[in-house]
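Quick one, tokens below. Sequence please?
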């Protein structure tokens, strides 16, 4: 089901390659795909405002045959009948076969797909390389070799690096990526995040700078501490450990959560708070507060392909959705006061996630890539 769903939406959004279009057309000819295709067509058909009244079953079948390159071989799909055929014609844009004058296509709600592995690598000379889930390439930069395989980027230093150069890996809204640093440390970047790092760790320490959200698994080097600069005021000091940093500028706090090992959170006044596993340092403009018994599954849910909304308010939920689905969130009136529970996979379409959230009596509507939270109705 995943493949035909992927091809169908790629075709509908006019982003499919010629090879993907041919593959979809072959699937449409296969009778064993009728049930899957019916479900997809029903979903799209329901989103159409109106269907042209001149379109009938008698007219639709021959046109569908011609659209798919068949000779009277297409049967009506069992669940939707001629409506499914009509949906194919409307979605495929081939109604010109029926009428000489163009027919205005009904308005269709835009399908908002989830984020994916994509990022931009900015090299030391200022040039940039686009990365995505399908990419496979080797990039040479001085004595450093950079290898991309799908959604992962890995560095390998060859020989001595007398000159330190810096790279930046940046994910857009709706993107994520994994990075292996020159020392073997692994970093997962969430959407709308970045990490700046040297192409080789040649000094007394290993220092990187992060914006947004990142999860770290640090390679242990006792003689060379690892440091993460979050801002001019906050630095994380590490020896070897696993931790998550959430430092989005639109969040009320910067949260550093320790899963394993030991880290110190140092603020601008040179005071350091040392965390134990399970603790979280919540940094504000006035200092650091340490929280015990943090829900670690919730903190790293994004890395594991899920949203965990246990105890999360609506504003926080929508900030996460906004970054992952690359949509703008607008509230009509006051923000509804709701707290959510449970987890949702991050591979769902936005509309599917919203249908789940609407069970909390919150209404949404879409205007392009703008997600509007409707005014709460008072009884």
């Amino acid at each position: 089901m995943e493949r035909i769903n992927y091809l169908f939406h790629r075709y509908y959004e006019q982003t499919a390659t010629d090879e993907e279009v041919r593959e979809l057309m072959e699937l449409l000819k296969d009778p064993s795909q009728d049930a899957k295709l019916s479900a997809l067509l029903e979903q799209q058909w329901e989103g159409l405002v109106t269907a042209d009244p001149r379109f009938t079953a008698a007219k639709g079948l021959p046109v569908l045959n011609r659209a798919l390159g068949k000779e009277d071989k297409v049967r009506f799909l069992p669940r939707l009948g001629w409506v499914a055929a009509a949906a194919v014609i409307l979605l495929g844009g081939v109604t010109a076969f029926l009428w000489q004058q163009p027919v205005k296509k009904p308005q269709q709600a835009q399908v908002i797909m989830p984020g994916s592995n994509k990022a931009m690598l900015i090299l030391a000379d200022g040039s940039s390389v686009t990365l995505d889930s399908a990419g496979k390439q080797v990039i040479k930069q001085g004595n450093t070799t950079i290898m991309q395989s799908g959604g992962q980027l890995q560095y390998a230093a060859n020989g001595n690096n007398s000159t330190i150069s810096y790279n930046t890996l940046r994910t857009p809204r709706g993107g994520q990526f994994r990075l292996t640093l020159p020392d073997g440390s692994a970093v997962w970047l969430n959407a709308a995040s970045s990490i700046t790092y040297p192409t080789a760790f040649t000094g007394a320490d290993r220092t990187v700078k992060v914006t947004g959200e990142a999860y770290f698994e640090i390679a242990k080097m006792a003689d060379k501490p690892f440091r993460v600069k979050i801002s001019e005021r906050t630095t994380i000091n590490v020896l070897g450990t696993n931790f998550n940093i959430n430092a989005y500028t639109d969040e009320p706090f910067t949260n550093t959560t320790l899963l394993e090992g030991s880290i110190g959170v140092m603020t601008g006044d040179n005071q350091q708070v040392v965390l134990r596993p399970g603790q979280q340092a919540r940094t504000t403009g006035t200092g650091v507060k340490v929280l015990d018994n943090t829900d670690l599954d919730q903190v790293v849910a994004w890395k594991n392909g899920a949203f965990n909304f246990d105890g999360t308010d609506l504003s926080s939920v929508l900030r996460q959705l906004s970054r992952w689905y690359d949509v703008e969130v607008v509230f009509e009136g006051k923000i509804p006061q709701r707290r959510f529970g449970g987890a949702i996979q991050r591979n769902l379409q936005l509309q599917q996630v919203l249908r789940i959230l609407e069970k909390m009596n919150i209404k949404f509507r879409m205007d392009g890539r703008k997600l509007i939270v409707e005014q709460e109705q008072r009884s």
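Helices lie at 2-12, 18-28, 34-47, 57-67, 82-92, 296-299, 314-325, 350-357. The first helix runs from residue 2 to 12.
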